[in-house]
Amino acid sequence: MPSGRVNTSFQPLTSTQSSRMDNDNGSSEAQFVATQQSFIADYYCSLAALTLLVFEYAITFDREVALFWKRRASGASVLFMLTRYISLVTYVVRTMFLGHWSCWRYDMNLENK
């Protein structure tokens, strides 16, 4: 019966465990390609969403200036600005790191061949 505890300690795989996993789960190259394709698809979806987000910010910027920037700051306007621009910065950083990760892994694989 499980104790309900989660093991959070990290233990790297030994070379025999790693080779056994490769043999049990099929080709490691096929797994790498599938993972790489997943990263790239996620990157392109994130890039498309970021493009739509920036477009929406661009077409509503004049209303934002008129309604929020030219008036005295209130709690609601501060909350609006924080929500609006923190989400933009978060999405930009996520997309940059996701793109870097997918390209880095692919370049690393090419260098090893």
Structural overview:
InterPro entries: DUF6533. By secondary structure, the protein is mainly alpha-helical. The protein has one domain. It is 80% helix and 0% strand. The protein has helices at residues 15-25, 28-69, 75-111. Helix 2 runs antiparallel to helix 3. The chain is elongated. The chain starts with 14 loop residues before the first helix and ends with a helix.
Content-based structural category: mainly alpha
Give average pLDDT, whole number.
76
Count of strand segments: 0
What string, H for helix and E for strand, traces the elements in order? HHH
**Helical residues, percent:** over 70%
What oligomeric state do these chains adopt? single chain
State the major sheet: none
Pfam family, one: DUF6533
Domain DUF6533: 44-89
Region (Disordered): 1-27
Transmembrane segments: 41-61, 73-93
Key structural traits:
mainly alpha; elongated; DUF6533 domain-containing protein; transmembrane; 113 residues
What's this model, at a glance?
The chain has 113 residues and is mainly α. It has one domain.
Give the topology.
Layout: H1 15-25, H2 28-69, H3 75-111
